[in-house]
Amino acid sequence: xxxxxxxxxxxxxxxxxxxxxxxxxxxxxxxxxxxxxxxxxxxxxxxxxxxxxxxxxxxxxxxxxxxxxxxxxxxxxxxxxxxxxxxxxxxxxxxxxxxxxxx
Length: 103
Hints:
By secondary structure, the chain is mostly helical. The protein contains 4 helices and no strands.
């Protein structure tokens, strides 16, 4: 209710200042709101995907650091490296998709 009243008050004030510009803005604002919603949903989905992959990498690193003594005791650095590279590559791909949406 208060947002509607504020919007109307601002629109009336703008009409007094410059009616031509106000009409142009009022005509184009629904289109801008639609575009903002569409891209907002896409960006939110991509951001969630980025956060999820970052969490996966973080969990893998946490597990790996916790088990570092065990890894060193069995001398298996190759398996350790493979377990880190996979999730990191997935995170890189997700970051790239996110960057494409923003550009």
